[in-house]
Amino acid sequence: MGRRFHQRAFFRTAAPGLGGQGAYPGPPMPNPDLALLRFMRTRGHAPAVEHAAKAVAASAEYGAIWAAAGLTAAAFDPPRRRRWLAAIGRIAYGVSIPWDRAPAILVTLAVGAFTFCCLGLALTGFIPSQSAAAPITNIVIFPLYFLSGVFIPESEIPDGVLHVAEAFPVRHFFEAFFASWEPGTTGAGFQWLDLGIVAAWGAAGFLIALRTFKWTPQAAG
How crowded is the C-beta side of 201, counted as CA atoms within 13 Å? Predict the structure, then answer.
């Protein structure tokens, strides 16, 4: 029971990141990337420096730097490669890596990534400006995190609330991903019903995005 609790705590911590959201629920903060670029531009720095700073900022924002650090350690220590990749989850939360269910984990991640990217693109059609993006996104996603049992244990959520959460993809993605990792799961670990519901939301988001998504901003932020 204790091990299961720590694993659910691990996925509550990781799930918002998988869904593309950070853990900061407050008001939108000034964009440090744009501030840095404006500063360098007014000081007359070379364009190459500006492009390099932008690349570093983007790689940090999307986790490329942190992923590169872990992959570098794994690359230079092949005998313990799996241990490097599994160290954080195992040490901090006691989560073991079910390598025999790796296909289910990868498929679940791929379906989730497709769905939430499509839903994010669809949502952009209803966001009037850059400054409104963070508040609107947080208003939509954070209630779903709480209702779906991502931040709060299921035992503390009324059954009626969980039934409402089951109408949305966050709950089903969380359940499918957790089941593919849980030691008690039998078989290959695929949760086809949950994955089907998540994929259906992704298809709906894709169709909406085709009609609403625009590369040009709607208004100045």
Answer: 23
